[in-house]
Amino acid sequence: MEYVSLDIIVCLKRVPDTETRVRFSDGATAIEPEGVKYIVSPYDEFALEAALRTTEAGEEGQVTVMTLGNEDSQETLRVALAAGADQAVLLRVQGSVTMDGLATAKALAAELETREDQLVLFGVKAADDDQQQVGPMVATLLGRPCASNVTSFEVNGGVIRCNRGVEGGTEVVEMDLPAVVTLTKGAFELRYPSLKGIMAAKRKPLDVKDADLPASRLVVQRLDYPPERAEGRILGEGAEAVPELVRLLRDEANVL
Amino acid sequence: MGEVLAIAEQKDGKIRPVANEVVTAAAVLAKGLGGSAHALVLGGTGVGERAGDLGNFGAEVVHVAEDPALESCVPEIYAAVIAEAVGSRGYAAVLFSATSLGKDLAPRVAALIDAPLASDVTRLEIESGRPVAVRPVYGGKALARIGFETSPAVLSLRPNAFGTNGSRAAGRTEPFTPVIPDAVGTRIVDFQAAETGSVDVAEAGIIVSGGRGMKGPEHWHLLEELRDALGPGTALGASRAVVDAGWRSHGEQVGQTGKTVAPKLYFAVGISGAVQHLAGMRTSQTIVAINKDPDAPIFALADYGIVGDAFEILPRLSAEISALRSEG
Ligand SMILES: Cc1cc2nc3c(=O)[nH]c(=O)nc-3n(C[C@H](O)[C@H](O)[C@H](O)COP(=O)(O)OP(=O)(O)OC[C@H]3O[C@@H](n4cnc5c(N)ncnc54)[C@H](O)[C@@H]3O)c2cc1C
Ligand SMILES: Nc1ncnc2c1ncn2[C@@H]1O[C@H](COP(=O)(O)O)[C@@H](O)[C@H]1O
């Protein structure tokens, strides 16, 4: 591989642990925060690992992590610093970020525009709102090329070559830097932070700026629990139960 | 002012089933809003030939952007063309399919036309003359009901969550001649087709998923036989444990860090039913679980369950379904 040296910024989001039991009251528009454990959104971890490996292969390249969120998001940024990111930026909001991905994208793009990173990495989707939109929106706002749903990539002198999952297979695309990539699961499982990394993280720079977050134009009117599925039935044990299953699939569920 | 535009996907000049679905949903929404449904098809030369068929699903006008530059989907170009077609025509809503393609294009178009986007919507309603979207959040552990402050509302619809209704007359096609941006920074250099199956798990009507209980990739022929017995439109899926073990590719993974699916029939074979797996498949219409552990959490979600050894149950199941299908 050719020598690479480039600065990468990873946008990551603080989200409830995927194991969390979400709770909310009748008519609520947000979940109850009590008892919720927060993590770096899983796909954003892939993006961070991709950034770390890319800069490790070169020299001088800096990895910055950035999040738009409240004061508590500092903790999430420290996790990323412990894993190896060099510096962090918190775009601080009062209150909370909203489901309007375009508003989030505008706030992130405004900051990215002032920076020189050649590569901006995102997770393909955040594990709370599951919107799958912020990355390509930021790219569009910045007028930069973007490859989404990428499983692996390689940077070679000003050009990034990505493998991306599409219907029926893998598409290979090349883009000129600066570019935007959204990561899905692939080759980049995030490393565990070392004790040294955790200690070092405390001293790494974490810049806090007030975000310019436009008002949300998507209004969450209400959250509901998903409808209870009708009580399932165990039809029996072993292959003996197969004829009854096939009959029910045909006559009751009408799916065969 | 109740016009709705559906972005209709095609592949190799053929209208895709997801396009029929998104046009059907557009027609229902447009009717409720007192307007009509339009469709937009983009593609290379000849793509317009079958486009009028979308009229059967309720598109009054099918706009056809036919240009050699649209032969394959370069996202910047497609997004620019769609944004131009939306223009300032006053659409109340613009609907995409939440496929790999739609999930890539919808946010770009939303940014270009400066309209907020609700992704992966599973239900559409109308309230006070405006569209309201219902979409799963937190991996399906909650449903958010969402209104739009501005118009158009941009939405992507989860495949198979809406269904099709195709009984009407052919629609009128109208050529649309867009400005094609020439300098874009993305080049498609290769496409590698996945080795198994032609239907993507995210769009399949029936899914046969295997988990760690299948013990190893060498046993996947049992699931392939069931898939083949169920006929075309059936795809294989997998749990993350199976993908992490390298038995199957990530393209087949169902769940929070895989695909989100809503088929009419989902088989979970040797899958325990961890929350992150359920996140990807809980909106399936009918769920069948086969697991040797009667306490496996998957049984709590399944409509029908069989407790037992998959290796014994699968061959019989494939045989019985084959027999049923050959009876017609
Ligand atoms: C952040 C995060 C994201 C995740 N994302 C996903 C995701 O997208 N998708 C996903 O699937 N998981 C995901 N997981 C992993 C998830 O938590 C589970 O570990 C995983 O789903 C388990 O896979 P499994 O059911 O195949 O394996 P297991 O949990 O090991 O279950 C195997 C099952 O097979 C049964 N079995 C064994 N032998 C037989 C037999 N002969 N016949 C019948 N049954 C048998 C057993 O009783 C058992 O129930 C995620 C986890 C995390 C932390
Ligand atoms: N508040 C945020 N701060 C930083 N990055 C974000 C934020 N929200 C979303 N992102 C990034 O955008 C990706 C997609 O998010 P979404 O479109 O909300 O599913 C995430 O995986 C993050 O990389």
Strand elements of chain A, count: 13
The top level CATH class name of the largest domain in chain B:
Alpha Beta
Based on DSSP secondary structure assignment, what is the total number of beta strands of chain B?
18
The main β sheet of chain A shows up as:
9 strands, mixed
**H and E string of chain A:** EEEHEHEHEHEEEEHEEEH
CATH topology of the largest domain in chain B: Rossmann fold
The helicity of chain A comes to 25-40%
Question: Which parts of chain B are unreliable, with pLDDT below 50 for 5 consecutive residues or more?
Answer: none
What is the count of DSSP helices of chain B, taking H or I runs of 4+ residues? 8
Corresponding CATH architecture of the largest domain in chain B: 3-Layer(aba) Sandwich
Instruction: Report on the biggest sheet of chain B.
Output: 7 strands, parallel
- Structural class of the secondary structure composition of chain B? alpha/beta
How many domains in all of chain B?
A: 2
User: How would you write the strand order of the largest sheet of chain B?
Assistant: 7-11-6-1-4-5-12
CATH architecture of chain A: 3-Layer(aba) Sandwich
Mass-distribution shape of chain A: globular
Describe the fold and architecture:
The complex is a heterodimer of chains A (256) and B (328). Chain A is α/β, with parallel strands linked by helices. Chain A has one domain (8-210): HUPs (Rossmann fold). Chain A has 6 helices and 13 strands. Chain A has helices spanning 42-56, 73-83, 101-112, 134-142, 195-201, 242-251; strands at 8-11, 14-16, 38-40, 63-69, 87-92, 119-123, 146-156, 159-166, 169-176, 179-183, 206-210, 218-224, 233-237. Chain A has a 9-stranded mixed β-sheet with strand order 9-8-7-10-6-1-4-5-11, with helices on both faces. In chain A, strands 2-3 form a two-stranded antiparallel ribbon. The termini of chain A are far apart. The model of chain A has no long low-confidence stretch (mean pLDDT 94). Chain B has helices at residues 17-33, 75-86, 100-113, 221-230, 240-244, 275-281, 298-301, 310-327; strands spanning 4-8, 10-11, 14-15, 37-43, 59-66, 93-97, 117-121, 123-127, 130-137, 142-148, 153-157, 172-175, 186-193, 206-210, 234-238, 265-269, 286-291, 304-307. Chain B is α/β, with parallel strands linked by helices and 328 residues long. In chain B, the strands form 4 sheets. A 7-stranded parallel β-sheet of chain B has the order 7-11-6-1-4-5-12, sandwiched between helices. Chain B is globular and about 60 Å long. Chain B is built from 8 helices and 18 strands. Flavin-adenine dinucleotide binds at residues 211-213, 239-242, 253-258, 270-272, 274, 276-277, 280, 290-293, 296, 309-311 of chain B.
